[in-house]
Specification:
Blueprint lengths: L1 E7 L4 H17 L3 E2 L5 E9 L3 H10 L4 E3 L2 H7 L2 E4 L10 H4 L31
Parallel strand pairs: 1-3, 1-5, 3-4
Antiparallel strand pairs: 2-3
Length: 128
């Protein structure tokens, strides 16, 4: 079984070194991950990013067949999406942008603990 992983943001330091080379490519080079049934789950990365030159260079360096600058295309081809982009660069794929906003009720914060003998000195007091 082969699991295709769309990896967005792998041209950055953390996305490249930690996630692509030390995780996904290491799993790929070991022939995948064995399951209890004896079957192996192999991974096939799809590189996604904004800079086609960097993506092409990484793909050639690591023998990766697929890369793209189109997130929606990558998502349609992959079973897993991994986002290593810098937070300020993240944009929702068009499928997420077209969904209505959540209608769930916001949760209240958890109640504050009552003062006990062990923490009463640090408990805030009201001043009149």
């Amino acid at each position: 079984m082969t699991l295709r992983v769309a990896m967005n943001g792998v041209t950055g330091r953390m996305g490249y070194r930690q996630h692509l080379t030390r995780s996904i490519l290491a799993i790929r080079d070991q022939g995948g991950v064995p399951r209890a049934s004896g079957e192996r789950v192999e991974v096939e990365p799809i590189l996604v990013g904004r800079n086609p030159a960097k993506l092409a260079e990484l793909a050639a360096r690591h023998d990766i067949a697929h890369w793209t600058t189109n997130l929606d295309t990558a998502l349609s081809d992959a079973g897993v999406y991994f986002d290593a982009q810098v937070t300020t660069a993240r944009a929702a794929p068009s499928s997420a942008r077209s969904r209505p906003a959540s209608t769930s009720t916001p949760r209240s914060p958890p109640p504050k603990p009552s003062p006990t003998p062990s923490n009463w000195r640090n408990w805030p007091t009201r001043r009149a």
